[in-house]
């Protein structure tokens, strides 16, 4: 696909599908049900991705939904796949201690990806041709620090 600087996005239906499918493949490994794509969350995530591109900064939206952010820069940006951002977030699994479940800033992207109680997802992507921001938004939000929530929502593989 050609990069359109007019629309400021590389996102198309195949990006969304791959983004959701990659989430669901990882979730399946951890005993979490599949997420469904929400157009409301996609609109919100797209609006936030556009904002991040305009301010050239990584910052959470404070919308009350769960949120993962991804950033990349290249002098020759090719098509970003939906899998790349999700793989980056999931790679934090190596730092998660399942025997001491809880929030850790090094693993928060991973735990949101597999958070069992999250049901819906939206994605936004914005680029200027060199910089790209991907925003994933989740409802209900994950990473809830109430007692017992991580044990119930972030399961080891094979459960």
Provide a brief overview of the structure:
It comes from Aldrovandia affinis. The protein is α+β, with helices and mostly antiparallel strands.
Topology readout:
Blueprint: H1 13-29, E1 36-37, H2 39-55, E2 66-73, H3 82-90, H4 108-114, E3 120-127, E4 131-139, H5 149-153
Parallel strand pairs: 1-3
Antiparallel strand pairs: 2-4, 3-4
Helix pairs in contact: 1-3
Domain SCP: 14-146
Pfam families: CAP
Family: Belongs to the CRISP family.
Core attributes:
159 residues; alpha+beta; Pathogenesis-related Protein p14a; 35% helix; globular; SCP domain-containing protein
Give an overview in words.
Helix 1 (13-29) runs parallel beside helix 3 (82-90). The longest helix has 17 residues, at 13-29. The chain is 35% helix and 17% strand. It is globular and about 40 Å long. The chain is of the alpha+beta class. The chain is built from five helices and four strands. It has helices at 13-29, 39-55, 82-90, 108-114, 149-153; strands spanning 36-37, 66-73, 120-127, 131-139. It has one domain (13-153): Pathogenesis-related Protein p14a, CATH 3.40.33.10. It has a four-stranded mixed β-sheet.
Name the average pLDDT.
Answer: 92
Distance between the termini: 38 Å
CATH A-level architecture? 3-Layer(aba) Sandwich
Helix/strand order: HEHEHHEEH
Helix content: 25-40%
Total helices: the number is 5
CATH level-four homologous superfamily name: CAP
As residue ranges, the low-confidence spans are: 1-9
General shape: globular
Return Rg in Å: 15 Å
Q: What is the multimeric organization of the chains shown? A: single chain
